[in-house]
């Protein structure tokens, strides 16, 4: 199996990032997950979920690398995926509308590597890892069911609120595949 590399691109390692990174580890296995660009103080937090490197992906000399960038024209296919040993994702908490940070942080800096998209729609990073794994395992993207934008109802006392996540998620048994831990975290967070 290929190695899935997450280039952490946020200024800090937020709880939201940790939740997504933990979910990725469940999807692909700790032995297949590699975090780069991690501050020394955060290395221990991520060790239980994969290998950790303080250097940026752009400093590593790896071969057969594919950056997963929604702004790239070519879509990853199962046949195409076989040529890569590494799939690289931007560890970026998305903006709506998307600002194209994967291109800025990775694709533009790594000129000699290939780049592919996973439908061209913005996904949470853990969803992108899941989709890339599904494609690498032989499922064409056209056979994967998705839902764009999900609304999560949060109960806070007598008041009901909801949060809208404007990203693409994989559907499993008709429901978006999202970490239960993330839903709990959002329900407790005060400053959404």
- Strands side by side in the biggest sheet: 3-2-1-5-4-6
Strand content: 25-35%
Q: What oligomeric arrangement do these chains adopt?
A: single chain
Sketch the major β-sheet: 6 strands, parallel
Number of domains: 2
> Which architecture of the largest domain would the CATH scheme give at its second level?
3-Layer(aba) Sandwich
CATH class of the largest domain: Alpha Beta
Mean pLDDT: 90
The CATH homologous superfamily of the largest domain is named SPOUT methyltransferase, trefoil knot domain
CATH T-level fold name of the largest domain: Alpha/beta knot
Binned, the helix content reads 25-40%
Plain-language structure description:
This protein is an alpha/beta fold and 192 residues long. It has two domains: 3-141, Alpha/beta knot, CATH 3.40.1280.10; 146-188, no CATH class. Helix content is 26%, strand content 27%. The chain has six helices and nine strands, in the order βαβαββαβαβαβββα. It has helices at residues 15-28, 43-46, 78-81, 101-107, 125-136, 180-188, and strands spanning 3-8, 33-36, 51-52, 65-68, 86-91, 114-116, 146-156, 159-172, 175-176. The strands form two sheets. The protein has a six-stranded parallel β-sheet with strand order 3-2-1-5-4-6. It has a three-stranded antiparallel β-sheet with strand order 7-8-9. A hairpin with a 2-residue loop joins strand 8 (159-172) and strand 9. Helix 1 (15-28) packs parallel to helix 5 (125-136). The longest helix is centred in the N-terminal third of the chain and has 14 residues, at 15-28. The chain is globular, with a radius of gyration of 16 Å.
